[in-house]
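Design request, tokens follow.
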């Protein structure tokens, strides 16, 4: 299985080179494509952003895609998905927050168990957050709510660190331009009958630079996916599920 990793970057990330070095080291074990999607909302800062990011991307054998005059975590991932050549795709944060060593495990369980989405779960047994803040507590509560409302039975719906089978990103249309794209893609995939599983992961809060997550902007974004799962639970599915192969242990495809 070829895997495309997509690293979104807002102008620059102090620990990007470190992140990319860790990802590039997976080439010993995986066939890996590496895309870095850099947003440069202020066109006057393009040269600075390129000078900052290009050496690290080149060193890691990756490709940088610059979106000058644009921003948005969700739309950046969507553009990355559109360019991805892999059989599966995984977003990786540029601030060393994801445990890169989990990626081969995710690929292995996707191949072995036939999951279409393998989530990296911070809130299941074996997973954890290093540097817990109010935001992670809210994200944990949100995951519980999504699950209770009829969403996929995983413990961490909002983590971006999830391996998606190519068929998922090709057939599930997303609208989220911000961080909630990770939730949108997961709940829509489950509602469409794709099989969603999880493995534990450890997520580290950033140690340098600042977060781009804005509560005021995100509340409404995240609320709509709660409404989506509640509504799709009430509506019987009409068409055959794309992932309707026999369900195995631990799978949580749209069946409920
Ligand atoms: N391309 C792009 N990347 C973004 C944007 N916002 C955040 N990122 C990147 O997405 C990753 C996660 O963002 P971060 O600010 O750490 O969010 P947090 O971990 O939720 O606080 C980092 O690599 C950021 O540089 C955006 O608007 N566009
Ligand atoms: Mg972060």
């Amino acid at each position: 299985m070829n895997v495309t990793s997509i690293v979104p970057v807002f102008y620059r990330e102090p620990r990007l080179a470190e992140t990319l070095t860790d990802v590039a080291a997976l080439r010993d074990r995986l066939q890996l494509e590496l895309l870095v999607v850099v947003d440069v909302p202020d066109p006057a800062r393009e040269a600075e952003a390129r000078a900052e990011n290009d050496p690290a991307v080149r060193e890691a054998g990756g490709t940088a895609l610059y979106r000058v005059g644009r921003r948005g975590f969700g739309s950046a991932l969507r553009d990355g998905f559109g360019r991805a050549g892999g059989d599966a795709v995984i977003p990786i944060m540029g601030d060393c927050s994801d445990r890169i060593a989990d990626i081969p495990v995710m690929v292995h369980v996707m191949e072995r168990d036939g999951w279409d989405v393998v989530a990296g779960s911070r809130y299941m047994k074996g997973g954890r957050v290093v540097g817990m803040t109010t935001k992670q507590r809210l994200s944990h509560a949100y995951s519980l709510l999504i699950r209770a409302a009829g969403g996929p039975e995983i413990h961490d719906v909002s983590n971006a660190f999830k391996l998606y089978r190519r068929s998922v990103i090709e057939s599930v249309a997303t609208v989220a331009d911000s961080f909630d794209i990770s939730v949108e893609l997961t709940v829509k995939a489950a509602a469409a009958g794709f099989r969603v599983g999880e493995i534990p992961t450890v997520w580290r809060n950033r140690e340098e630079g600042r977060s781009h997550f804005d509560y005021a902007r995100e509340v409404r974004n995240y609320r709509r996916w709660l409404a989506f799962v509640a509504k799709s639970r009430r509506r019987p599915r009409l068409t055959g599920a794309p992932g309707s192969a026999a369900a195995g242990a631990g799978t949580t495809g749209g069946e409920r």
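Comment from the thread starter after seeing the answer: thanks! Residues 8-10, 13, 37-39, 71-73, 76, 93-95, 97, 206, 211-213 surround guanosine-5'-diphosphate (ligand 1) (CB under 6 Å).
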